[in-house]
Amino acid sequence: MAKQDPTSSSNTIPIPTLVGSEFVRPQTLDLIITGDTVKDTTGNKVFKVKTPLFGLHNKRILLDPNDSPILTMKMKVTSKHDRWQVYRGSDLDDKIFTVKRSSTVQLKTRVEVFLKHNQTREASCDFTIKGRFMKRACTIYVGESTKIIAQVHEGDKRLVATIYPNVDHAFIVTLIFIFDLINMVGAGI
Asked: Which Pfam families would you find in this protein's record (predicted)?
């Protein structure tokens, strides 16, 4: 069976703007991730991920080009599913979504994303990330559907993310960093 074209108009599952409308573009966007820095294809810095030096929790902060916090990613220490909670800005009061490994034992990594309205029951995920750690590649889908909203592959010691039209790229970049962190923890790194 042929894979669906992610940009086709027949593939119309609405995708909410999760972080902000300033991070949504009507065209496909390619981003280059090298270490903790995210740039567009012309070399402009789009985001940076900061790891605080001090603190009791494993946490990362997604910053804009002016070093203002956009999102805070915080690992839940007592979780056996490598659960990360994501908050708006640097404030831990406004949780937007949760990301977790779908099961504790996996051959291929599968991570589920639950939006704020879906976090109490977690019956079905809002987004799914599937990939392989060794290849540092993944695909992000809407829920359990075949609708692809972003793809990531490794090239020249960096990650290349293709984010499809009308998808919040701050949200996708956050998912990519969490996916990488979950894979590192799962691999014992």
From this structure: LOR
